[in-house]
Each structure stands twice: as C-alpha cells, then as structure tokens.
Amino acid sequence: MTDSFYRPxxxxxxxRFAGVPTFMRLPHVALGDARISDVxxxxxxxPWDGGTTNRPGPRHGPRQLRDMSTMIRAQNxxxxxxPFDLVNCADLGDVGPNPASVEDSLDRMTSFYDEVVAQxxxxxxxxxxxxCSLPILRSLARNNPVGMIHFDSHTDLFKxxxxxxxxxxxxxFRRAVEEGLLDPKRVVQIGIRxxxxxxxxxxxxxxxxIKVIPIEEFHARGPEDxxxxxxxxxxxxxxxxxxxxxxxxxxxxxxxxTPEVGGPNSYQSLQVARLLEGVNIVGADLVxxxxxxxxxxxxAFLGVSIMFEILCNMALAIKARSA
Length: 323
Description:
Layout: E1 41-46, H1 61-68, H2 83-86, E2 89-94, H3 102-118, E3 122-127, H4 133-140, E4 146-151, H5 172-178, E5 182-192, H6 200-208, E6 211-214, H7 215-221, H8 223-234, E7 239-244, H9 266-274, E8 281-287, H10 298-322
Parallel strand pairs: 1-2, 1-3, 3-8, 4-5, 4-7, 5-6, 7-8
Helix pairs in contact: 1-10, 3-4, 4-5, 9-10
C-alpha cells in the first residue's frame, strides 16, 4: 500500500474547481524536498516550445494540462487499475526553460532530469514541443539505449531545418539515434501521415531499422493488432513512450501546432495507450498541446486522459520490475 500523502485529492472532499491545480490533484514535491526519495513516478511540466517551426503555443501546455487534470479520478474505468494505490506519484513541478536560448533550455532540461534519474524516479512529462523529448532521453538513456513506442503524425527524424538547424521539434529522434540514446531496431512509430517535403526522414528510418506504421496501415489493421506488434518490437527491454497529441485527428484534438487530418478518434487514442500494458516503460511524455488553438481545454483534457492511461501502465511496469 502506498503512502497516503501521495493520494490525489478527491472531488468528494474538495470541489475540482478549488485548490491549487497540480497534475491529477497529486501533492507537489520539489526535487530538493525531503520526501523526494519516496516518489516512484514524477509528473513534470516542460513548458517550452523553442523548437517549434510554425505555430507556437505548447509552452502553455503544462499549465492547461494541469488545470484539466483535476477531472482525473483514482481508478481506470476500463481496466480497474488504481495507479495511486500501486506506487507513490507526485507533481515535481516544471523545468525552468530559457525562452531565449534553445541550447541553454536543452541543458537545463537535461540537468533537471539527471536529478530525477538519480532519485530513481520514473518521469511522466507534459510538454512543450517535441524537442523536449531529447534532453529527457539524454538523462534516461545516458548509459544504455532504450526502445521507444512513438505515437505521432510525424516521424521527427529529419536531419535539419533551415539549412542546418539541428534542434527543432522535427529532429529530436534523429539526434537521439545519432547520440546512441535509442536502439532503432526497438523503435516503432505509429500514425505517420500528411503531406511531405521529401522522403528523407523515412529513408533514414529504413536505413537504421526503425519500424514506421503509417496511418493507412493503422486503420486497416486496427489498434489491437498494431499495438501487439509494437509490444513485440519493444520487447522486454527498457522502453520510452512518446505521445504527440497531433497523433489524434484534429476533429478531436485541434489544440496543436501541426495538425494532420485522417487520424484516430479520441477512443482509439486512449485505446493505444491502454494497450501499452506489459511494456517495460521507464519514462514517457505527452507533448504538443497548444492552448491558444483550443481555449476550451478539450484537447488538454484528452491529453491528460491519455497521460492517465500511460500512468496506469507505468505503475504496473514498476510493480513488475520489483516483483
């Protein structure tokens, strides 16, 4: 049984519109706090979008995600999993980025996650644009490359933008492969679609052994079959999960900077996260929620609902590793 301090505040005790909006109404525990050593899963905001190349706004994502997460309750309605009964979870706050510098922000995020890893905390992060995944991987996979299950409309495997810019939200996983952070043969990318400049990113994926499942194949095969293959590709080894909200069709998640039509609906978007059960998850993120494009908060609520599904499977993975 987990420490009662780490239980979320119930809407039956305090109305959901009241109190300080932490992730899922969990306690806030800063990295320097005495209780930090008790935390198993840390929910972290990465409010930075310096890698965005078109429509900015994901820097405001973590705040809206926190606010909408007050609607998350303690039990998964589909699976019955109660993650807060299994492991100690806490909101670790935000990484403080430098909005004027890409390089300094990447360094700041890496330093923050170095401390998280040193405390043996499994991070569940809320972005922020997709470049935020790179410094997280630099901390998690510094000594050993990890596999990755990646939900997105885009591969984010491009070599560079604008004549040589190496660090944008379209390049993080190219850098991660080059830096030895990802084992490309244990990486699967699901939902890829949309018009393209060229095939350079897909050619790179083919050259290193990354499995790309385009949206046409996803719809033809269905979520269960696709996720069965994804779990097989990841295998029993340590695996990172990266979920770009633009994986979802913009009819259901308009609040993002680079939407692509033809994606899954909101139920399928939850279903693929639910079907991560059994994956040895050592970290995960949900990125690219951009509040300026959906001020209603509907995209953010879908985002935190996906985060909860991932959190349930992270808690199960932690228990499996300790068994």
